[in-house]
Structures
1.
Amino acid sequence: MKFGVVVFPGSNCDADAFHAIRDAVSQECEYIWHQDTDLSGFDAIILPGGFSYGDYLRTGALARFSPVMKSVQKFAEDGGLVIGICNGFQILLEAGLLPGAMLPNDVLEFRCQWVNLKVENNRTPFTCKYAPGEIVRVPIAHHEGNYYAEPHILDELERSGRIVFRYVDEAGVPSREANPNGAARNIAGIINERGNVLGMMPHPERCCDSLLGGEDGKRVFLSMIEWFASKRACGGAELSSGAVPGGSSTATSVAKDRS
Amino acid sequence: MRFRGTVTVALKEGIFDPQGEAVRSSLVSMGYNRVSRVRMGKDIVLTLEAKDSAEAHALLDDMARKLLANPVTEFYRVKVEEA
Amino acid sequence: MAECVTPKDPAPLWRQMGLKDEEYSMIVEKLGREPNYTELGMFAVLWSEHCAYKHSKSLLRTLPTKGERVMVGPGENAGVVDIGDGLACAFKVESHNHPCAVEPYQGAATGIGGIVRDILAMGARPVALLDSLRFGHLDDARTRFLFGGVVSGIAGYGNCLGIPTVGGEVYFQAPYRQNPLVNVLCAGIMDHKDLHKGQAYGVGNVVMIVGHSTGRDGIHGCTFASEELGEDTESKRPNVQVGDPFMEKLLIEACLEMMQKGAVVGIQDMGAAGITSSCAETAARAGTGLAIEVSKVPMREEGMTAYDVMLSESQERMLLIVKPEKVEEVKAIGKKWGLNAAEIGQVTSSGQLQVFHNGKLEASIPVNLLAEGSPVYNPEWKEPAYFSENQRFDYSAVKVPELKQFGEILLKLLAAPNIASKEPVFRQYDYMVRTDTVQGPGGGAALIRVKGTTKAMAIATDCNGRLVYLNPKAGAKWAVAEAARNVAITGAKPVAITNCLNFGNPEKPEIYWQFKNAIEGMAEACLALSTPVTGGNVSFYNETEGEAVYPTPVIGMLGVLDDVSKKVTPGFKATGDVIALLGTISGDAVSLAGSEYLETVHGAVAGCPRDPDLALEKSLVDVLVKAASEGLLRSAQDLSEGGLAVALAESCILAEKGADGAVIELGGTGCKAVADHRPDAVLFGECNSAVVVSLVEEDVSRLKEICGELGVPFGVLGKVSGSSSLRIESCMGTAVLDVQVSELRDVWKNGLLRAMAGDTARGTTE
């Protein structure tokens, strides 16, 4: 499987994502410069963390207009797997590939720490290697991870199983104390209606090695590999609404929130 | 003609503004008890060419919608004056 | 025009620019004429203390700088040390104290920017940052403002660069109230073959400027850094530059690409004194000259003069010396990253720095005179009165608390901002980016894995200014020893240091005495520990209205851990493990000198710290490295602020689940019986060459053997109990203290936040 890691000016987790793919899960990986538009040959695209365009104006707002983003949009429309991590998630929101927006952390500070995440939906291409409801430890590092969407959109995300990760305490409760940034309903990661675009604030690429404190993030990438292999085994079946349980036509308005 | 446009961008009413809240609480602790609410935003000041003020306004409105503000969380206001 | 030159000032121009009369005469004599305005400005910045080391040069020469691993020593942009596998580490620590005193956010931000570019200039990719910070006490609103601003400045700039901030220290002590210290250490990694230097070789080669455009910001910044702060400090605010971390990130990537393509002959950061210093220094090192056309410098303001351009301290710029045939390639890489890459001049054989503005010669100064010609001062020194008073300090006046108070005292020490967890600070820093942070902030030293090898680099910064103040020579030795110990408790071998010497006004004999003694102590300790000095920075004039900071020679220690899987961490690991003390605890009253206990509990900064036994410190380091390499150590924590009791408490707090709690018997073989000594000195005394370790019972004999071979005292203290409490008993089995680990953890974890919220009283006498 071949991954592509997009490099925007100011990306700074690009090398970490590259290292995780090549060394932790042993897949082919290449960097994609933000001005390149040819994504042929790639099976999955990673929008890495960092401070694209210095996070100036709003996080992700300027990167969204990089030439590569049109191709990423097309890639997603064609069913390709796209994962946005941290700044990558922010870019996906700005680009309208996922609904909602990011506000500054309610603590008004950058936060770098380990958090507990609950895998709310393990029937996605990004989480199929996790047990349902599994609690995993993954680091966060961001200043703007306070996820916001209007209540009816949040309800729709809940209903359609599109909240993939939530901040929880050790017992799995999405408590106020377990929420590091004020994100609505403790949301740490969401997926699009079709189930092939994931955005998450925590950094799975930072926990693919026990030497660094944990390996819980590795299975995000292993899930993608397994899903991709099984798709090929089934003759390239497209993602169906079955990929995201509960996914229904009413969610359309959500996906098109910002285009 | 040359115009000076100011696009004011701030969080929509109803979205919690922790920064504004922090400023409010500091002001109150400094003794400004009469302050009950603080909302923060930013001014983006642009110099641009347009044939008249209406065109300048339309251009700025377009920029604000597409880039300068995020319609999910922010509202904006455009002001145009001759530079 | 420079902001600090006010027309109303009747003093001659050179004095307004910070030059002394005799320095001006020297310039006229050596130049053979009066310098013009632009030239005078160039001299003023390059001959400032900040750039010229006028008061420190002669003593700095006495520091040991040679070692088998040292590839580049002092004098370049940063020291470079061989770490094996064909790799090298470039590292250096630098101060940004004065800018932070007026504008903490930007001061800290641009401080990071500068040191990162120094590392970049050696050809290395910057991979780690550590911050060594000093502020006044947190009950002061101004201090809280400075502290908050500096921390957010570090976060705002450092996080954006994608360089993890992996460690450092924060101290809160009264003498830093007006004059905070902000020292930043950066370390970078490179292949030996990628080593670059700041040298302008090759007549005909092209001088290029890459990065930000040049504005009028920061003109005379280094003159500002070479003065005491006074009442008018606020009005000097325009001198502080604004950092653009996004530009810096692009500059790092672009310069690394340019160097890796072999396009760069020489490279230098434009920090203090901007184009002037980078040109003069690169040419002086190569024995060449440079001709610069200032109109070719990309500018962001209109109407800038040659003076403005030459003295601007605009951030995020690098000077490159490029072969003519590589100029287009450099420009293309600049364009790719959206950066200016402009040709601004040429390397010449003239030995002069010639500055043209639209073809008109505006300045012409011999580069040697500019870069190396400043006078060297050997100021007078005088032992201050306080020093002999300290030696007569009567410890019997410090009442030994009753045994039942010891638990409370330990809690009070753990809650003290100097000892409490710094998590509220470091959680604002991205300490994990690059996925190499094996041990981040909060341990003794940071451990940075080197991908592609089995190695890790260990880096620590240390200096207890209170000890250095009370006894500069001994205090500096303790700083080196503690830094070495902090590296060694991870299992890494300390290999070299960089230093940042923060002192008051060297023209005052008492301050120079502190400096002189600190340097002597540092030299002795570095020799004894085989950790040569590879470079660093001197920051004088850290005084406000005549009050100097504690003399604070911050040590940045680099260590190498050959097998990162053998790393050792401070927390206890498993119930039943044996807790042992390596080294000695004297238990005498003198070990209370300058202790956190004396200040926090008794409100006294007093006593005369003794010298460390450097031979023992060296052996202790060797024992730790050997024991770790054999996999004998389950945990290791060194004794520093708060002494033995705090070290034990921290190992309990940081323990693995199920391993919390310890029972310690002081009357055992561990250290001399409490009955013989002051129990407060045994538990809270500092200035001990000692480390608390834990290990499985079966390994005790082997560790004892190693200690015996290397001449380090070994003693069993007790056991990891799993009882969820730290119990320390005297020889009779009576508990000196018995405190729940949850309580220890609570005060330690929340101490800093509570102090910031004003919840704790400070310096109250028991």
Note: The interface with chain A takes residues 11, 15-16, 18-19, 22, 67-68, 70-73 of chain B (CB under 8 Å).
2.
Amino acid sequence: MNKTRGQRITLNTAGVLVALVFAFPTYWLLTSAFKPSTAMLTPDYDLIPLSVTFDNFVSAWAKPGFLTHLTNSLIVTVGAVLLSLVAGVLAAFPLARLRFRGRKGFLLLVLIAQMAPMEALFIPMFLLMQDAGLLNKLPSLLLVYFAITLPFTVWTLRGFVQGIPYELEEAAMVDGCGRFGAFRRVVLPLLGPGIVATSVFAFITAWNEFLYALVFMRDKDKQTLPVWLSTFRTVFGTDWGGIMAASVMYSLPALIFFLIVQRKLVSGATAGALKG
Amino acid sequence: MKRLTKVMAGAAAIALATAGCAGSGGGGSEESSGGPRTLTVWLMNGSAPETLTDALNKEFEGANEGVTVKYEVQEWNGIQDKLTTALASQNPPDIIELGNTQAPSFAALDVLTDLTADVDSMNGGQWLQSLKASGEWDGKQFSTPFYAANRSVIYRTDMFEQAGIAAAPTSRQEWLDAITKLRAKFGSDPQFQALYLPGQNWYTLLSFIYDEGGDIAEANGTEFKATMSSPEAKAGLEFYKELVEASGTTAPKDNDEQNPEQAGIYGQGKVAMMIALPWELGTAAKDNPDIEKNSSAFPIPSKNAGETAPVFQGGSNLAIPVNSKNTDLAKDYLRLLLSDKYQTQFAEAGMVPGASTDLSALDANPVSKAMAAASKNGRSVPATPTWATIEAGQNPLKDMLTAYLTGVKDIDTATTDADTALDAAFTG
Amino acid sequence: MATIHNTIRTDTVPAGTSPPAPARASGRKRAGLGEKTIPYLLLAPAVLVMLVLLAWPALQVIGISFRKLDLGELVRGEVVWVGVTNYTEVLSDPEFWTITLRTVLFTAAVVAGTVVAGLLIAVLMRHLTGPVKVFVQVTLVLAWATPILATTTVFQWIFDQQYGILNKTLVKLGFDSFQGYSWFSSGTSTLTVIGMLILWQAVPFVCFTIYAGLLQAPKELYEAAAMDGASAWQTFSTVSWPTIRPLVTLATFLSVIWDFKVFAQVWAIRGGGPDGESTTLPVLLYLRGIAGRHFGVASAVAVLMILVLVVLTARYLQLLLRTREGDVS
């Protein structure tokens, strides 16, 4: 597995190139956030920003409600991710390792559940929440995001469990662990990276959702960040500089969430190596 | 789990109630007067100045004991979906603001309270004609005017002066002459544009078509037939093309004035004119205050010297959802909002008031003065419920403009195709 | 290489297969009454949530697709059955099949691009170390986490005809024909830009999923492969691939579903234009249904979309249902 110096340099160069390509739109968003509003599009060559201003961040920060909306977003998003992961891990194990009547029916349910366009579901969903008395309450969003992210979470985690060689569990069972003991001690630690990847995805899906957040929450102080982001548009036009600055502020929590969980990506692998 | 149980119960309830999904049921019943009541008012972000609404709500609450006004500012993104669900919900807002081109699509569906009997008591004599028409359906009035605005030509006084243009153009010919002079003076700068005019500014196109005596469609009762291939409409389209070519604008032919935002481009100081709403100058001047000092405006000139061209009037209407539980209270609120006292404040804020003919406050600023001058000649799109779909979807007028300006289609094909697409949309 | 083949099962794929044979033997032997109910208990929360919050609204959508449900009916709570009128209206539109075909091709192109790029970057990421690795990961996460409203706007600015940085750069590099070049003048070109936007946002998920799968493979197997003197390709095909194959299949399947349903980005870039040439099925759903508040028609388009998706993924669903029929009762 040891690579020569030359190989390492080639690989790292490739890595940097990939990162640069992927970073460009983000870079453009970032520089736009620091540009004066009228310089978003100029005839001048501005690959490197020609002037820098913090006005957009000042005006975005001054926009009322950022912290309230941030809190709401965090509650519904983190809540939905946690619920999804718990229900997802519980379901992934029997789906990947056990056989029982109704297994295929369930798999089909999970698959088809993801095919319906959410834009078409919002009216039935709205009426459902209204009849449950949950409109204008954060739990309604939390439940919807739980439901939106669940099929995917179940499906992906099942894939990750399948990827773990069954022999590892068998070995543990031979060593005297029960079936679930083996799952807990062998499979779960190896599942670390999968749980991280899945949770990042679920987090971002819920974090970015706009339509349901808009339609379910009436009161300003119960709305989430995507709705806050849309307040930069008024009768008098759109404050693009403000939107760009606000988007930077908006993406940070997702990035922080990733940086927290990404250590798991590494430690998960190590744990797997130790236990395997 | 408790919440889950509740949701389950809710689901079961719906299942028992109907076969499919039902709304909350029709007919709002009037709440008994007396006792504390809440009037929910939805206005759009940026519509009414905060000072106005604060004073208005305070006065209304003072005059109606036990009433609280729940004033909720709505965002533009997703407003159609939000209105749809809100109108179908158990407690809809009592007053809503509708875009004037959207208003007929609500009026025709019986989801708004009939206000025909209240027009007179709501300052009806002074209503802005184009907005009044947007609120009518089948001879009844379903929404009232709120405020409006129309476009004028915002121009750089300093550039006009340097190019030796003595006065603002008052006819199409003078307008074209001014463009020629501006280009002669500043044309050496490749970034200079005498007039910024993107290919899909269909509001401006309407102005030219109205000026020729044409319209988008002709009405026959509640039926509409597109008339873009009429000689008048074609003449309007020809002038649009003439203007684009004469001005040497580098604006995209396949996009509108918002993409890219024309105010930002005007703000960079290389553009002598743009056809815009008054506040776009404020956007342009955000980072360049000098531009505001050096700018003024004139109404879109007519082909008849000395006249101003009719203009498309954009704006908003106000309505009371049919399921409102406070219909009478909501009508009182509308009466107050449409009274001279508050309507004047709209003029002061730079809008054309929907229910006042007193536009003197707009004269304070040269740009809003130009808007006011043209506003008497304001028109709107055909008052058909299907227009909302046309505007929210793929507007055939935009496709027609791009196809003709880029030379993909000749004028006959472009206008006939537009007629076909519009007629298909009108029949819904 | 022999050692590897002995220690690892290579038939964990496709993702739809039922559990490995050993599970059956040991599972059945010990199966008591308690153990039989355990799968159901474990599945119960997921089943409950999906039935109430996804399956039930989805069933209603099917119901609505046979009704006239405009704003008026919705507000008054009327139920007006119209049979298959909504379907005939949608299907009689000659454009429908063009749009369907366009959507399928567009989805296929974007999914292929996403999966290939995601796989390559994941493999690359495994071999990176230190700051470069963190740099790659952070850029991927940012591409993913930025709000759609901002990314679609930024893409429009980058590709702007007059002032876009792309055209300005190309002109600087000497390609003068890109002065004022419109990237949105044809449907194909517009869809290409939209495809890049979606790809940019979709690759991170595929990449992280596959990368996580790569990390899952126990290190000993790589070491064993190295001791056997396996080449990089051999190591990949015998150690990495078996672990990630179910994940690649799964990522492809999920990408098909998601990319097929993308609306916001397609709509934001050019509203399905020019002249309707970048209109996809979700845009059609919006134009015919949501924009005019004809929710019956919108539901009919939604049901048709699900049917097309089922056809597209039929092979995958078939594998899922057919494999080891005897084992799964």
Note: Residues 125 and 260 of chain A are 33 Å apart (CA to CA).
